[in-house]
Amino acid sequence: MEFEYWWLLAFPLFFALGWLAARIDIRQVVTESRTVPNSYFRGLNFLLNEQPDKALDAFLEVVKLDPETIDLHYTLGALFRKRGEIDRAIRMHENLLERETLAEEDRLKALAELGQDYLKAGLLDRAEAVFTRLLETPFAGQARRFLLEIYVQEKDWQKAVQAADELDKQSAQPMNAEIAHFNCELATLDMVKGDTDSAHAHLDKALSIHRQCTRANIMLGDLQAGAGDREGAIATWRLIEAQSPGHMVLVVDRLLDNFKQLNRLDEGLDWLKGLLTRHPSLDLFTTLYHAVMQSQGAEAAYQLAREELRRNPSFHALERLAEAELITAPEDRREVIQNAKSLIQSHVQRLTRYHCASCGFKAKQFFWRCPACGRWDSFDPARHEE
Q1: Residue 39 above 50 pLDDT?
Q2: Of 26, 130, 158, 274, which cross-links 115 as Cys (Cβ 3.0–4.6 Å)?
């Protein structure tokens, strides 16, 4: 291919056009930046440096200079809400909605922000009304999530099931576990009213939706035991080991009690010893220790505690060992052992807690839903020593 010399003349022209385009872009950027108040850039800088209070003051100054800055109103409202100044956030978004010239997209966005303000303020009826209005808009997905949060807070489990069903159909994130819990909540209400048939139906539905719902099997076992079907209750509770071994600690007391009612306590103790070997746990050991102490005496409980302390060292096992030894110890040693036991006990009570895996919240009792962050199944049913 022969080189066309006239291309040499075209190169300077291309460079000139590129230089001219760059100058036009730079001039446009400089012109636009001059129209933006310095307070806006100061506000952004404060946000980047995680100084929301100073950012808020800077953005407020911008809004005073230019009230038409719609996006900045959203930013201010979100900052007010984050700081807990809900009244100011509500006024900010209500003022936006009062503008007749506001575009429809901005109106819907302001309405969604206002709904979040109401929800944060605890005005659940107003928040529900706002998000219900948004169900037929592009904000429908977001509205359903907030509506579900409202129904959970109000403990309106039937509406929660319906909202979660809709979200499950339209979202890539499955809602099976949450829907199963909602059905368990409905079953709890039925059990309080004495409607065992309806409770069974809700628990069966929970398991059909989410086969790993240990809560449903725990409650089904309770229903069977309450109806006198102790064999069935034991069988149902033992299914939990295949679902989630950690949740067995929630039913071992009931299991042993039903074995005892069937005059098969020794069988129950053997089964619990095997469970403890397969899945070591502070609570499983404590349950077994007290059962052995009651049925076989202090010497057997002492040997059990010694073996557990050797196999899985813990303050729990040490406390149980001291407790058993205190019963059998000579009179002149009891004071020393009692003092040691008291020290260990106070230490154990401070350190042993249930933990939320989502937010780190600690509690003395087990929750299916974290009281702090609202996540379901975030609590490990087995307590641990810190």
Answers
A1: no
A2: 130
